[in-house]
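cron nightly-structures :: item 1 of 1
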Amino acid sequence: MRKLLFGIALWLVSPWAWASFRAADFVIVPAAAAAPGLQNATWRTDVEIMNVDEVPVDVMIVFLPTGNINNTYWFDNFAYHLGGRSEDGFTKVDPKLKDIQPGRSVVLENIIEGNWGANSMGALLIWAYKAGSFKQTTPPGGEPRKILVWSRTYNKKTAEDGTVSTFGQSIPGIPWYYYIDAHKQPQGLNKVVFSGIREDAAFRTNIGLVNISDRLTSLEVELTLYGADGTKLKDLGVVLSPLAHEQFDQAVKSGLFRLENDLTFGTLEITVKAWRSTAAEPTPALLAYVSRVDNATNDAVYLEQTYTKEFPWDCVFNGNCSASAATALGLVPARVRPLAPPHP
């Protein structure tokens, strides 16, 4: 895999989502790595998984390598995936991922290098199911149960006196239902914005995309960059392969937009414009993330992916959810789960 200059960030917010609500049986960590970075950094990722259900759970983890490659073959090859029980067919096994008791958390340190090798980067798809139930369902996949996921991607340094220190970024696990939905174009929910885009001698900006659609669907994504005064600077399209991860490092001046001038306090709009699929019922679904990184220290700041629509607080908290209001908010038609877990 190519050498990667790594800087990651994500904090995803949607009309249905806010920081306190992250529980799901299918959770995505949109960026994880064991990769070299600028300023002699060596990035690694730890993942923490908490069982917030009422019964013990097992967990499966699928790594999607970066590079905008079609990861369908990788996804379908069960030998590449990590689980807690060899009897379920896993060849990559970590016992921490079986029989996680209610309320208990487990931590997998340096998860990418330990299971998929160094110089690797991509996204993690994490499924939770009732302990021991993986092969008891048809198709295999288990009885879904809820978890919370956090991750930390960080650099580890050793000083001359032997003192070890770390610095890095927390990236939350994103529930599957937070995805940018191409079907919600009439409600304006097929696009998100980021503010605070900066790239100059002091800072760089990295942009990441993860296709979590069904395994046969590609996405046509439009990225539009604006200056601080709202002037459109450039827009371009990216076709994201099925189950692909892609990160554009130094995206403003080098990796993607290739602007000639520095940019401070810019904004970015990301839109799912269309999709291509051979699936009978395609479910186009995108996650995105942005990171603004200090060139001197590699310290990074998260820039939130945000819809421009108001959160339906009156419906969620007060129960005032008329049919017309739900339609206007994009709550109907119902959001569809894009991806089922792989199995042997």
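cron nightly-structures :: done
Confidence is low (pLDDT under 50) at residues 1-19.
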